[in-house]
Structures are given as C-alpha cells and as structure tokens.
Amino acid sequence: MTGPATTPAPWWRDAVVYEVYPRSFADAAPDGAPDGVGDLAGVRERIPYLQRLGVDAVWLTPFYVSPLADGGYDVADPRRVDPVLGDAAGFAALVADLHGAGLRLIVDLVPNHTSAEHPWFRAALAGDPAARERYRFVDGAPDTPPNDWESVFGGPAWTWSEQAGAWYLHLFDPSQPDLDWRNPDVVAEGQDVLRFWLDAGVDGVRIDVAHGLLKADGLPARTAESLAAGAAAPPEFAHVRAHPGAWNQPEVLDVWRSWRSLADTYAGERLLVGEVFLPELDDIAQYVAPGLLHQAFDFRVQACGFDAAELRATIAPALDAFGDRAAWVLSNHDLVRHATRYGGGERGVRRGLAVTTLLAGLPGALYLYQGEELGLEQAEVPPARWQDPQGRRGGRSRDGARTPMPWTADADHGWPGGSWLPFGEVAGRSAAEQDAASGTLAAYRRLLALRRRLRELPPEGAPAWLDTPAGVCGLRRRLGGIEVGVLLNTADQAVRVPLDVTDVLIASDGEPLVGEGVVTLPAESGAWVRLRP
Questions:
Q1: Domain 11-114+184-452 carries which CATH code?
Q2: Which of 325, 407, 316 is nearest to 370 (CA)?
Q3: What is the pTM of this model?
Q4: Residue 25 neighbours by CB distance under 10 Å
Q5: pLDDT in tens, 30-51
Q6: CA 264, CA 221: separation in Å to the nearest integer?
Q7: Do the domains 459-531 and 11-114+184-452 match in fold?
C-alpha cells in the first residue's frame, strides 16, 4: 500500500502506547535474587517483546520513591527512582534502550497530591507554616470536618491531625494529602518536576488526575442537586458529579497552559496527555484546546457496553471534538479489564478484540494496557492480599487489574521469586502460550502491523459513518486513495452489511464473507475491509 508523500504528523497523534505497571510487568532480578516485584530492568529485558507487538511508545506508571500506600501514586520523592525498582542509572539505560529500539517513553506525574511521607508534608505536620500552606489544612474541631466531601476511595475526604491540630484534605487516601495549587511553591515545584523528567529524555508525561488540583473557593459542601446528580451518574463518574467543588475548576487550565509552554521549549514534540475523568465531552475538550494538553483520555468509551449503537453514539461526537488528537482507551491499572467487562471467558476476550479492532481503525492514538494482548481478565485477589486502599476503604479493589504478567506456562509464570500479587486464572494466557498464530497475542500483532502500514498513507478528509444494520457500526476512511471500512458487529449472530467490498484486510474473529455488494460479518467481531471507490 503506497501513496503520495506527506508531512508527518506529530508522533503522538496516531501512536500505539503500551501502559506498563512496572511492579507487575517483569522481574529481572539483576542481582540474581528475584524478589517477586517487577522493575525497570525487567522492562528493559522485554523491549524485544514490545517491539514485536508493534507499539510505538511505553507509558510507565509511577516508579518513584513511595511507601506504596496507593501502588506508587503516593509519591514521596518525584525525582528519584524507588530502589526496589531500580536507580537513576537504570532509568537512563531504559531511556537509551527504548530510543535505540525506536520506542518512545512516557512517564506518569502525580501533581494533585503527595505522599504523607513527602518532606513537605512531614514539615507541615511539624509546624512549618510555609510547608503547611502548600496543602489544604483547615483549622477546626476534631469532631467537625470542614465539609461533607468524601474520598474517591470511600469514607471522608478529611483527616484530623493531632500533630498539626487541623484537618487536611485528601480526595484519595489519607496517605495522599492534596496540594494547594494556588500556592506559588506548589506551582513552581510542579514545573520543576516536569522539567526534570523532560531533561532526562522522556518523550512525554501522563498527568494523573488532570481534572483535579484546583478546588472551589470556600470548599463548598455538596448540595441536594449534586448528590442527586452523583446518584444518577454511571459509577465511574458518580464522585465527580456529586462533588462539583472538588473537580474541573476553570483555573486548572492555567496550570496546563504553563506546562504546555514549558514542554514546547523542548525538541521532539514532547507529549502531555491528561487523565481527565469527566462524564461530559465538552468538559474534556476544554483540556485539549490550543495551548493546553495534547491529548486527554475519553473514559466514556470504556463505560460503554458491548453495543454498537452505544459505542457509535459515544465515539462519533468524540471524533468531531478531537479528530486525530483523540486518545482511545479500554483498560488501564484502575479499570476492570475489558475482557471481564464484556462478559469474561473466551466470549469476553473475543468481544474485547472486536472493539479494539474498531478503535485501532479510528484516527488518534490507541492506549493499550499490559496483558490485554494476552486476553487477561480481571483476577480474583483474596482480600487478605489486597494492596489497594480503595478496596480496604470499602470500594472495589483495583488489584485484580494489576496482577503480574504471565510470561511462561510453568508454575511461576516467569516469576521465579514469586509474585507480589497472585496471578488469578491465566491458564492458556501466558505470553509463551499465546505466541501461536491463532492466539490473541498474534491477533494484536497483526492488527497493529496493519495499522502501522495504513497510517503511512495520508488521510483524505474526515471519516464518515456508514449506514449499517442494527447491531453493526462502522465508518469509511480514505487513506492515500484507498477506501477502508472499519466495522464492528456486536450482535450474537452474523449480520449482512450492504457494502461494495473488494477484500478483507483483517478480521478479529472468523472470516467475513464478501459477496456482490454485501459483506457478512461473523457474530461479535470486528473487521477492516477495502471498499470499492
């Protein structure tokens, strides 16, 4: 497939980004003594695997010094690698190896809060007034919180500190005190941490809780209206709707405007992608306005069921809003794995691959989560082994999405020192077992290889949605003179779609039948087809 030359778009616009949760990816045990915890050296060892998979970039979740009260998202030192995971030299080697392999690196920054073990917070508790002003401390009585806000993880969002004689805000765990982003020290530190990692050679940053940071003046209590909105919202967005004073304040965009100005001083199109967990498309779109973030995850797609009409109704306006700056995601370290959400077992894996086939055919970037290419499902982690504070505070434990990657079919699955979390049911799902031509891993490789070939062709015009039967959605894309149809059938039976198809480029399951002016899609499958111009 060839086409006329064109000026390449920024690398991140159509990248396939692979999320690595380092503690659960691979334990390299460089000292010869595996400890059951994945590390940066393990990521380095698996670079050939990532190359063969066909991704363009790796996103590392936090690997900084942390007491691990929240899986590393409680950062005690945002400039230093946790010794359990490696060191500065090992990180530099990882950057060099990834770049040498043609892969880019995105790191995770956590600006909304710090660990309670951060020097700033320890100083605040010890009575340093300047340190205290960097957080949201409120004086009062120990039996009366400043307002009725609740933590995302369950329970109150306020903890009384006897040492400080005041309440402090934590929208997540009490071990994660929220910073006050109206404080100039906090603003300066955020920029300095960003500059530190850009200087270290990373190609971009993923910003945790990008819709947070700023809180409404006066910290207003919830209202009857906001409580009703939260109760009526999908579970993923209930907290945002119920706590309007805690999220999505207009001033937060000024933070990202300043970060973008800094990132733009670096060569190589350094990426800023935000975790913007908001239910309204217009609100998400604010974050990617000119001069702000390059991308923002649209989590509304992962909230969809396996339903073509629902997916189209969610994707279509997102394409209108973001175009080729979209960032598609089905799973990550916080979400229930999509194979489980789509019904579990072989059916859930099949459905997940079908939806991924649709998303991979859209303009924009595709974000994958480690193990989804193996068809991993959400693991059942016994409560006694929970590490996630959300589970311990009465919510859904996210540990089931964070269990280790199974590399081999033997008893230890490639983790000879044991594993910090149990594996769950992974029979037949290890990378070694999935390395066959018919496995899920091979299907991902074929899909990403085709995507890479097609994206070399210049897009001509915007995608157009096709008129399809019930249970099917699809769109037409013109790439370098080639007409490509990207289709998804969510019906539990084969569906005939009136299209003039010359051949099938790829199918997630089964083989679509091409007839005169019609293509028959197998049940619960996705496909890319070449359309007759």
A1: 3.20.20.80
A2: 407
A3: 0.96
A4: 26
A5: 666 789 999 999 999 999 999 9
A6: 38
A7: no
